[in-house]
């Protein structure tokens, strides 16, 4: 007996599809339009073809920003994923303190990005900031507006403070899904804590960890507000990540054609690396299963 499929459900999805088309596809096509044209003002556009893409591929400025961006995202993932797992493993699994920890871990995620940048901008100042004043009192030369290392440490610590909670909460959700029978069997077998983590907890967390890695990579690769508020891309161009460089090109210099080509290439890089992450993590999950 053949199963009848009710296609009326598409009418419920249609408003969402239209909203996505309006908010994503149409602006993207506008960017594509700018990327293949040149203008001398007065809304007069001239066909430029792939000229802006070729210019961006030859631009040392873009490659330098890409290198800084990859380094930032790599450092963020290397810190936040293990730290989030460690926090989740040490959180209470039930009771009042479990709820308390969950609420506490959620607080940084509720703070708007521009507020996070402002908090750390003030926090790191030597004259009025607790961090800057304390380090200066200890004799440590700390100035994120003039020292490259201090600027990088500041934006990395700021991001770790802001987003490690997300990884911890996702890892905690994965741990909560593990049946108690697994732990009881490991206890009977006298398995060590490392073996419990390696063969029980980590495989069960792989699904949520894949989501955590993808979310953290995409967000760190597109980060703009927090480092811009804190350092403005400085000192010099030391913290000028891809997003900051793109905004400077589009709004500061008003080079719409190169900026449009830059943004499309930026989007494709994010899409490509996210696909690689997803493919690798999915294969690892299948292999573990």
Which value, in Å, is the CA radius of gyration? 24 Å
* Average of per-residue pLDDT values: 88
User: What's the CATH topology name?
Assistant: MetI-like fold
CATH architecture: Orthogonal Bundle
What is the ordering of alpha helices and beta strands?
HEEHHHHHHHHHHH
Low-confidence stretches: none
**Largest sheet descriptor:** 2 strands, antiparallel
CATH class: Mainly Alpha
Label the structural class. Answer: mainly alpha
Strand fraction equals under 5%
Question: Order of strands across the widest beta sheet?
Answer: 1-2
What gap, in angstroms, lies between the N and C termini?
Answer: 35 Å
Count of separate structural domains: 1
Description:
This protein has 289 residues and is an all-alpha fold. The chain has one domain (59-288): MetI-like (MetI-like fold). It is 73% helix and 2% strand. The protein is built from twelve helices and two strands; from the N terminus they run αββααααααααααα. The chain has helices at residues 9-35, 51-57, 60-89, 96-106, 113-123, 130-137, 148-176, 180-188, 193-221, 225-230, 242-252, 256-288; strands spanning 37-39, 45-47. Strands 1-2 form a two-stranded antiparallel ribbon. Helix 3 runs antiparallel to helix 9 (193-221) and helix 7 packs across helix 9. It is globular and about 75 Å long. The chain crosses the membrane at residues 12-36, 70-89, 101-123, 149-175, 196-218, 259-280. Belongs to the binding-protein-dependent transport system permease family. InterPro entries: MetI-like, MetI-like_sf, Sugar_ABC_transporter. It is a multi-pass membrane protein. Keywords: Membrane, Transmembrane, Transmembrane helix, Transport.
